[in-house]
Amino acid sequence: MTLEMSLEWISQPDAEERLYQELYARAGQPLPSLDDDENRPRTIGNVAARREGTLLGWAWLYEDPDGEHAARVQALYVPREAHRLETGRYSPLPPPAEEFEMVTGLYRRAAQEARAASYRTLRWSGPDTGPDGQAATALNAYGHGEYARTWSTNPATWQPPVGLPDAPARRLPEPDLTLATADAEISAAIEGHLAHLNAGKAIRYQRTEPRTLAPLIAQLVTHLRHDHPTVTELNIWEFDDTVRQALPLAGLSITERHMAYELPLTPS
After folding, report:
1. Whole-structure pTM value
2. DSSP one-letter code for 203
3. Percentages helix, strand, coil for the chain, rounded to the nearest 5?
4. How many whole angstroms separate alpha carbon 188 and alpha carbon 199?
5. Which sign does the torsion angle of CA 114, 115, 119, 122 carry?
6. In the structure, what pLDDT confidence band is assigned to residue 1 with cuts at 50, 70 and 90?
7. pLDDT of residue 94
8. Does residue 19 contact residue 46 with C-beta atoms inside 8 Å?
9. Which residues contact 186 (CB under 8 A, 6 or more apart)?
10. Containing H/E element for 57?
């Protein structure tokens, strides 16, 4: 029997600091100084999710600086964030069922609180196949403004596209799998059967066109196949025009679209 998840609306000024204290305690680390940012949007409140008293995560509900009578919500899943604090990396593993359940519950309650506070719209963002996208479906929000994508392939079954030229790349002595040419560099982190990278940080290039960047991406897949045969999935998150055009040329396909979501809040 699954234990029921409880939700708590917290509007006290120090609510977020107390939630972060629980998060850092779980990660076994001291809480850093949480400096006030005068440019930070006005907080409306926080919704915390717990199971048997243990903090699963929370959603920060705040005033949208870009929209009149609009609020934004952003969820944090404690096990995922604790992993980042402990390892220095975000977990590349797919969200568990608990995270899907939590985010939908948090956003539903956040919508109720935003409506009660006379906001007309609730906004959030995230991948269409992840917890944010599922919450959008469950709450009848609509997606617009695609801002990024995740591209994937299985190195073992990947085939280089016909006509793709070779990229004379050298491997750099980095902790991650890093390849470089005269004009570009790509680096993938490997965790178990997954290789993943944020293209904004891990793909660097100068004066490079998509058709000349694509062979370097293909070389990365080839190295994963031969040097890391246990890797069964490569995920690349991108929001860049050049990288976006290079990835299909290298034989990768879109598996997630990262969307902005909007939920109209009708008066209660």
Report:
1. 0.87
2. E
3. 30, 35, 35
4. 9
5. positive
6. very low
7. 86
8. yes
9. 178, 179, 180, 197, 202, 203, 204, 216, 217, 220
10. strand 54-63
